[in-house]
Amino acid sequence: MFSSFFETARNSPFRTPLSTVRCDAAAPVVDPQPVEGRQIAAAATPVAQQQQDSCEFGSSKYFALCGIGGILSCGTTHTFVVPLDLVKCRLQVDQAKYKNLVHGFKVTVAEEGARGLAKGWFPTLLGYSAQGLCKFGLYEVFKVKYADIIGEENAYLYRTSLYLAASASAEFFADIALAPFEAAKVKIQTIPGFANNFREAVPKMLKEEGVNAFYKGLVPLWMRQIPYTMMKFACFERTVELLYKYVVPKPRADCTKGEQLIVTFAAGYIAGVFCAVVSHPADVVVSKLNQAKGASAISVAKSLGFSGMWNGLTPRIIMIGTLTALQWFIYDGVKVALGIPRPPPPEMPASLKAKQH
């Protein structure tokens, strides 16, 4: 009885994690092949290699897929927070009527009903989808191209400057795509009776001010969005690096996709708070400028004064912090879903390590 027990134990697949089971001593040993559709990988396989990448890092397909991630990331999140954005804009342009965030919601619902909180959702969806395409897609393009220009060692040593330059370049083009939709959105949200939707707003704007109506806010938009985006990308990239280095108890390669996305969300929220503060004065000027006919950015800034340019900061910190965290979470989630390469945080090149010894 005991001899058969020991024979069974010796042939058990659970004897050691990597045992080879032989039912027949004469049978040839066949190397195990992966089963199509199975998600379980060997314990020694890094998490990052469990899924085949759908494209090569830095290829045209890679940049195109990153652009799709940007569309989904920015378009959905900005549309989701339209009610908060609407009240924030009204706080910025009419502090007397909309005293604070809660009061602003109450006044809006009392005057226009709950549907009034969704005003401007369509130009928001179109504008920020276009912006997301350029912002994320071109950021990846410029980051790779600028790194190639300055070389691997300099790309590591001056990586913060690299992130700042790549994000500023991407946002320059992203705002050209966003400006017409942002101008229409602000008019719909802040001028009572001007228009109920995007379809009504466009012909009115063309009739009153011509094409200039759509681009007169471009320069202050650059002033708001370029510092915001520089902070958003550089702060995010460095925060992720620091979280994996000092907070997360194991290397990124050993983290599951879910754990990596939690780190992404946390780093995104931290970056979002800084973004909101840096870009807020210009955001107030943009709202006022698109509301006032024939005004310039300088005249608006003078009329607001220093304290006036900080109107609505609290709701904007809440909005931008949440937005930025969700955007990075969605963007990284899309990368996971589409199998887009996700390089780990940068490490010192071997050539640089050799110079230091």
Proportion of helical residues: 55-70%
Contiguous low-pLDDT stretches (5 residues minimum) are 12-21, 37-50
Characterize the main sheet.
none
Structural class: mainly alpha
H and E order: HHHHHHHHHHHHHH
Considering the chains and any ligands shown, give keywords for the structure.
0% strand, 357 residues, 14 helices, mainly alpha
Walk me through the structure.
- The protein has 357 residues and is mainly alpha-helical.
- Helices cover 69% and strands 0% of the residues.
- It is built from 14 helices and no strands.
- The model is unreliable at 12-21 and 37-50 (pLDDT under 50).
Summarize the structure.
This protein is 69% helix and 0% strand. The protein is mainly α and 357 residues long.
Compile the SSE list and pairings:
Blueprint: H1 2-10, H2 60-80, H3 82-93, H4 101-112, H5 121-150, H6 152-157, H7 159-190, H8 198-209, H9 212-215, H10 218-247, H11 257-291, H12 297-308, H13 313-338, H14 350-356
